[in-house]
């Protein structure tokens, strides 16, 4: 009996040791799980905190328009309310095209590439003038300073009487949206050398000093205050030219409408028809019009701000209230 009891006691002791060991292992596993949970939670909080900081920086950059502090120096001949526009064409032209655009915006390039020849033709005939407003939507959404510096350089070109040529050249040579090439003054000066008479000491100083940076910021503030939804925003005599999705504008239709407004015979019956449609629909104020995808540019999407998701190739965009 004694041997049997001893054997039973030994078995019980072994079972107890195994159970204690298993219990300790279970406790260790539980501690490991809690530790992993804490590490993962801390990492998630860190990532979310970083994202929040980045979001605030991007939003604030877009809201401030990217202009640095300093006096507001409008370019020579700036026109419109508060001298926020650079006008091309003849002042007495019957029709006015109002354009809000960003030199880094792919959709703006698509608009310019498709409508440039028609706009220049109408300007040359004295039928159309264009009020350009240069903004910094992409800088606010994507980071960088290319929108601001290109806009300042364009304003410097206006001082030299070379805005139109340099404006077109900037869009023709626009880098990919994610490439902040225009953030380098050297690139802007390199392009200026292609415009006869533009690359002068005065122009270079204007570019290097950022003479019109604060003015550009003021233009961007006006863009935000207008509640425009993206770039390009294009208005013909106050009416968003891309707002009618059922009858989207083309360069030819733009030509017909401008000719009809001027009472010329170039538009013919088509122009009269287009003018009638426009008159029947009325003209909303510029303050409520929004940017839209140019009807004649398949695949190009308007640039919008954070909060509405910029829809250019890499999601470019300006701030939620302004649009990029």
What can you tell me about this protein's structure?
The chain has 324 residues and is α+β, with helices and mostly antiparallel strands. The protein is built from 10 helices and 5 strands, in the order H-E-E-H-E-H-H-H-H-H-H-E-E-H-H. The protein has helices spanning 2-64, 106-124, 137-142, 146-159, 163-172, 185-192, 201-209, 213-225, 251-262, 268-281, and strands at residues 86-89, 95-101, 128-134, 233-236, 239-240. The chain has a 5-stranded mixed sheet with strand order 1-3-2-4-5, with helices on both faces. A hairpin with a 2-residue loop joins strand 4 and strand 5. Helix 2 (106-124) runs parallel beside helix 9 (251-262) and helix 9 crosses helix 10. The longest helix is centred in the N-terminal third of the chain and has 63 residues, at 2-64. The protein is elongated and about 115 Å long. It starts with a helix and ends in a 43-residue tail after the last helix. 43% of the residues are buried. The model is unreliable at 39-67, 267-299 and 305-324 (pLDDT under 50).
Secondary-structure content class: alpha+beta
Helix-strand topology string: HEEHEHHHHHHEEHH
- How do the strands of the widest beta sheet line up side by side? 1-3-2-4-5
Query: Rg, please?
Result: 31 Å
Helicity, in percent?
40-55%
Low-confidence stretches: 39-67, 267-299, 305-324
């Amino acid at each position: 009996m004694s041997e049997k009891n001893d054997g039973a006691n030994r078995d019980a002791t072994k079972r107890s040791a195994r159970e204690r060991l298993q219990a300790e292992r279970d406790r260790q596993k539980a501690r490991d799980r809690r530790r992993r949970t804490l590490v993962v939670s801390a990492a998630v909080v860190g990532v979310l905190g970083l994202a929040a900081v980045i979001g605030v920086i991007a939003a604030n950059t877009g809201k401030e328009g990217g202009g640095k502090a300093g006096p507001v120096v409008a370019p020579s001949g700036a026109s419109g309310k508060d001298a926020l526009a650079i006008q091309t064409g003849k002042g007495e032209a019957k029709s006015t095209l109002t354009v809000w655009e960003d030199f880094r915006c792919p959709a703006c390039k698509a608009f310019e590439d498709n409508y440039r020849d028609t706009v220049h033709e109408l300007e040359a005939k004295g039928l159309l003038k264009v009020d350009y407003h240069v903004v910094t939507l992409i800088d606010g959404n994507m980071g960088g300073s290319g929108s601001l510096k290109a806009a300042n350089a364009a304003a410097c070109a206006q001082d030299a009487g070379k805005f139109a040529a340099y404006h077109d050249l900037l869009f023709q040579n626009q880098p990919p949206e994610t490439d902040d090439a225009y953030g380098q003054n050297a690139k802007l000066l390199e392009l200026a050398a292609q415009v006869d008479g533009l690359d002068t000491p005065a122009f270079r100083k204007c570019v290097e000093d950022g003479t019109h940076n604060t003015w550009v910021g003021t233009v961007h503030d006006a863009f935000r205050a207008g509640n425009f939804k993206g770039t390009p925003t294009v208005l013909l005599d106050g009416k968003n030219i891309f707002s009618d999705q059922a009858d989207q504008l083309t360069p030819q239709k733009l030509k017909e409408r401008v000719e009809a407004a001027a009472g010329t015979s170039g538009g013919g019956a088509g122009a009269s028809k287009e003018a009638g449609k426009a008159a029947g629909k009325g003209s909303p104020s510029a303050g409520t019009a929004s940017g839209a995808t140019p009807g004649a540019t398949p695949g190009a999407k308007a640039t919008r701000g954070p909060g509405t998701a910029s829809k250019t190739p890499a999601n470019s965009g300006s701030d939620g209230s302004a649009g990029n």
